[in-house]
Amino acid sequence: MLGRSGNPTLNDKTFDRHGSYSGSGRMTINGTVNKTFITLAVLLGAAFAVWNQYFKGLDVVPYAIGGAIGGLICALVISFAPRTAPFLVPVYAALEGAFLGALSAQYEYAYGGITMQVALITVCVFFALLAAYKTRIIRATENFKLGVFAATAGIALVYLASFVLGLFGVNVPYLHDNSLIGIGISLVIVAVAALNLVLDFDFIEQGAERGAPKYMEWYGAFGLVVTLVWLYVEILRLLSKLRSR
């Protein structure tokens, strides 16, 4: 039985709904890796373009808002209709890149050098967990998947509650401040985001083994990039808390 992924874009029944294929029409790990690099290249290109606009003194708020809203819409469409992934994943990457470029530039302006530190940490975490997964130091058992899924869902609910309460001028204690408890909460969230990478690796591997259709390579790349973006943002928030103390 295909395992559960904590990543909301990758779940138990995603591959089951799309049948099994063979030959050149099936999903492969190498194909998914290639699609992931293409997606990241588009994301980084858009991010650097908006970054440069910010440091030229231009207003990047429209990019941040448009990227966030447009990226969310694309993500929802891709999640519910994986067949659209080959067409919409590059669009999602460009929109998400615009949002991250604007966000990163503002953090860089406030805390010089922080974005390079965050990028390096994110890359190191990715390859460390990939190595741990490939050598089976970390195994994506059913209990492991269930725990990460529950933790991810809990974090999503906390963020949703924080957003809704914020509309009424109510702040969730510790979630956004730089107190020791606030830093501890950010560390936990970073750890959960990182562990989602293990589930994504397992999900992609199982999809290739089950002979998922070729377009699911784009869907697998999309799910992995969603996790990487989340991890990057959470590390960015964590380091900004540490730098502001």
State the domain count. 1
Return residue spans where pLDDT drops below 50 for at least 5 consecutive residues.
Answer: 1-6
Terminal residue distance: 47 Å
Order of helices and strands: HHHHHHH
Shape: globular
Q: Count up the helices.
A: 7
Structural class: mainly alpha
* Percent strand: under 5%
Mean pLDDT comes to: 89
Helical content (DSSP H or I, runs of 4+): over 70%
Let me know the number of strands. Answer: 0
Largest sheet: none
Radius of gyration from the CA trace?
18 Å
InterPro entries: BaxI_1-like (IPR010539)
Transmembrane segments: 36-54, 60-80, 87-105, 111-132, 144-168, 180-199, 219-239
Pfam family, one: BaxI_1
Keywords: Membrane, Transmembrane, Transmembrane helix
